[in-house]
């Protein structure tokens, strides 16, 4: 379960929106740790910290961090609960864990957006790009911006990966390129908080006034190497939500010739499961032109069975490489950079380009 350590902050390494990276001295030697000031306060050198080191010592995917649970000798003050601020809501996330956060939901009675959200029942044909990994987000944004540089883009973060949006340095770097982030389900820390993917999508359209929205889980994910044991399978349910609300679901395919695992080469089995078996609505599945010939053939063969339900769209790749290289944040998936897994990022950018093209197209 939880592996605990007590330590002392040596240095503050760097900060980004919602997070502080630290060097902490423990009985096991120095560790790199991460704190979320909105949960535990702002650590300073000399502070004693309580750490959860379980995933770190087991070598699991936490970004190589111990996580600060508390500053026991210097607790932060209680938030001001005036009923109108972020801290004045009643939406509980990470529920019944020791660090459950109580936040203002976008559609709560105290929210300034209550009336808009209460009246909202459709996302009015808005294109929504679905991706199973957080690393696809900046590539999708690059593809949208390549053709529609002024489009308002919202990000709906589901709770399959990291729960705090603050963990993502990608989101910090994209702040000036997104209309906002909405955290849904048990995820928290976005610009807006929503209970479900449905309310997150409605808030993207009617509160953030997004032209296009991207949906994916946060950084990190849960996977067991089996067909169904992957948190990204929920992407198919998100596609159903988009359709239920009158949107245009666009499937970003997870394509790779850089992943050493057979189940992820060509089109990942996760994409095939989410779109082929979980999604009950018709999607646009995007294949980019310009893939390496062998990878293109593998991808075509993999998605062929899905065309009985979905529409396969081949999207020109002209200019997408340049758009990807101009990304305001580094591109990386499973430790692989753009040139190490070019097909992966190209596929995500092509999905973004297709969604941008739908802004001028009537609903099918």
Secondary-structure map:
Blueprint: E1 4-16, E2 19-26, E3 29-35, H1 37-40, E4 48-52, H2 54-57, E5 66-70, E6 91-93, E7 101-103, H3 114-119, E8 127-130, H4 137-147, E9 153-158, H5 169-173, E10 180-183, E11 192-193, H6 197-206, E12 212-217, H7 235-244, E13 248-252, E14 255-256, E15 266-267, H8 269-278, E16 284-288, H9 293-303, E17 311-315, H10 320-325, E18 332-333, E19 336-337, H11 342-358
Helix pairs in contact: 4-11, 7-8
What does this structure look like?
With 364 residues, this protein is α/β, with parallel strands linked by helices. It folds into two domains: 4-70, Beta Barrel (OB fold (Dihydrolipoamide Acetyltransferase, E2P)); 114-358, Rossmann fold (3-Layer(aba) Sandwich), CATH 3.40.50. The protein has helices at 37-40, 54-57, 114-119, 137-147, 169-173, 197-206, 235-244, 269-278, 293-303, 320-325, 342-358, and strands at 4-16, 19-26, 29-35, 48-52, 66-70, 91-93, 101-103, 127-130, 153-158, 180-183, 192-193, 212-217, 248-252, 255-256, 266-267, 284-288, 311-315, 332-333, 336-337. The strands form five sheets. An eight-stranded parallel β-sheet has the order 11-10-9-12-8-13-16-17, with helices on both faces. The protein has a five-stranded mixed beta barrel with strand order 1-2-3-5-4. A two-stranded antiparallel sheet has the order 6-7. The mean pLDDT is 91.
Short descriptors:
Rossmann fold; OB fold (Dihydrolipoamide Acetyltransferase, E2P); eight-stranded parallel β-sheet
